[in-house]
UniProtKB/TrEMBL annotation:
Residues 1-23 form the signal peptide. Keywords: Lipoprotein, Signal. This is LpqN/LpqT family lipoprotein. The keyword Signal applies. The lineage of its organism: Bacteria, Bacillati, Actinomycetota, Actinomycetes, Mycobacteriales. InterPro entries: Lipoprotein_LpqN/LpqT-like (IPR019674). Gene3D superfamilies: Mog1/PsbP, alpha/beta/alpha sandwich. Pfam families: Lpp-LpqN. It comes from the Bacteria. It comes from [Mycobacterium] wendilense.
């Protein structure tokens, strides 16, 4: 599995129509982490937010800031020109960076999990939040392990928030959830989310590639 992004002239041409009232262009050739995606079939049940699923099987989570982690190391690379970013809608323990304090953004959130659960079954439902996004179009999905841990990755485009009466922007999102476990069987949930404007995908691709390629989750 490779974490590199692939950028093609054909994909760049597709971006011209990102704001048109036509089907969303396929950005898979721009932000792709696997040469041949190998998705695992998900449950036939309607998707529910992942936090809701975990709560339903008796799992609770406590957000932990990256600087307070003692059993894990999580790496979020900051490309040149990016700075710390804070979103009031996210937990205060979220580590966020942004380019010029706007899109694209990248965030990492870590939860210490309490409660036993079937990790493979949970991973198959980990991409539900993306699937529930307004007008979501899936471009790529994988359930391959990441850094040796169970993981789910999904990327696609969806309609972002907008002011009443205005056209919602088309956003491109990459999400990876990793569930590492320590030698004493303490489980964590680590999520990397990268969001950018779809019509800026080519211009931002080098920075996004740097973040994806540099993202690491290791047990200390």
């Amino acid at each position: 599995m490779t974490r590199r992004l692939r950028l093609t002239a054909a994909a760049a041409a597709l971006l011209v129509c990102a704001g048109c009232a036509t089907p969303a262009p396929d950005y898979q050739s721009i932000w792709s982490t696997t040469t041949t995606p190998n998705p695992t079939p998900t449950s036939s049940e309607p998707p529910v937010p992942f936090s809701q699923y975990l709560a339903g099987v008796g799992v609770q989570g406590e957000a932990v800031a990256l600087d307070d982690l003692t059993e894990l190391s999580v790496t979020l690379v900051r490309p040149a020109g990016w700075s710390a970013y804070r979103n009031e809608n996210l937990a205060p323990q979220t580590e966020g960076i942004a380019k010029n304090n706007t899109y694209p953004t990248a965030t990492v959130l870590v939860f210490r999990l309490d409660g036993g659960f079937d990790v493979p079954a949970a991973i198959r439902r980990a991409n539900a939040d993306a699937l529930l996004s307004p007008g979501f179009t899936k471009l790529n999905e994988s359930f391959d392990d990441f850094d040796g841990f169970p993981s789910a990755m999904i990327e696609g485009s969806y309609f972002g928030p907008s002011e009443p009466g205005s056209t919602p922007p088309r956003l491109h999102s990459y999400s990876r959830i990793v569930i590492p476990v320590t030698p004493d069987f303490q489980r964590y949930l680590v999520q990397l989310t990268i969001t950018g404007l779809a019509d800026q995908a080519v211009a931002d691709s080098a920075d996004i590639e740097e973040i994806i390629s540099g993202f690491e989750v290791t047990v200390r």
